[in-house]
Amino acid sequence: MRYFLLSKALAAILLTGLAFHSPHASAQEEPSRAFFTDSFSAGLDAWEMLNPKSWQIREEDGAAVLVLRRPGKQRPPVRRPGEYALLRDRIWQDVTLTARIHTLRSTKVKGRDVCILFGVQDETHFYYTHVCSDANGKTHNVIMKVKGTRRFPITRPKRPEARLTDEWHTVRVFHGRNGTISVWLDDMETPLMTATDTDYTSGAVGLGSFDDPAEFDDVEVIGFRPVGR
Questions:
Q1: pLDDT digits (tens, 9 = 90+) for 174-206
Q2: Taking the CB of the first residue and of the last residue of the chain, which one, N or C, has fewer CB atoms within 10 A?
Q3: DSSP of the chain, one letter per residue?
Q4: Could you give phi then psi for residue 122, rounded to 5 degrees?
Q5: Structural domain boundaries of the chain?
């Protein structure tokens, strides 16, 4: 069933935004509020894919979904999601991304995953959450930071519950300019995992997977455009 969570997410991000903004700042200094929604019925012009041929829009039950058909391959100098689609030409701050996600990998694969990217600076500097059917505290079911030739988990708790199944799930990621990161999966009251890091306080956001096929739908992004961006 297609649905949107815009009102809840908007209320949350506006409250967060108010907490971060000085009442003495001029209007010219304030980041501008922005939001984006996509149910993929109008094509993929809003998205920039790493490998466009790996993606397609497909109809399921009369509705469009975005499909990652072929997972990408690893590229030097660091291991990271092999394929992803970034929201084109948009830099976000104090951002909340909500989407429905569905792994297409067989249950025989222990570490099947879906990834949400955020704070993206370039191909080797960003954060991603790895939503997985396994939790090993190192690479599966974590919030990961990619920094040049290194990547490392910054997740709390260290080993959150593995909830990814064959069903569709709703994931939400909040990334604040103060370094706060929270990830929810299905339960929107209590975060599944959190982190704090201030290296990338704004950036692009995207959808992808480390090495599995997956589906995405009902994407909502709510936040702020940084000053001058």
A1: 999 999 999 999 999 999 999 999 999 999 999
A2: N
A3: -----HHHHHHHHHHHHHHHS-TTS-GGGSPEEEEEEE-STT-STTEEESSGGGEEEEEETTEEEEEE-SPPPP-TTS---SEEEEETT--BEEEEEEEEEEE-S-TT-TT-EEEEEEEEEETTEEEEEEEES---SSSSSEEEEEETTEEEE--BSSS------SS-EEEEEEE-TTSEEEEEESBSSS-SEEEE--S-SSBEEEEEESSS-EEEEEEEEEEEEPTT-
A4: -165, -170
A5: 6-16+31-225
Class of domain 6-16+31-225: mainly beta
Residue 57's CB is within 10 A of a number of other CB atoms, namely 13
- Whether 226 and 203 have beta carbons less than 8 Å apart is answered as no
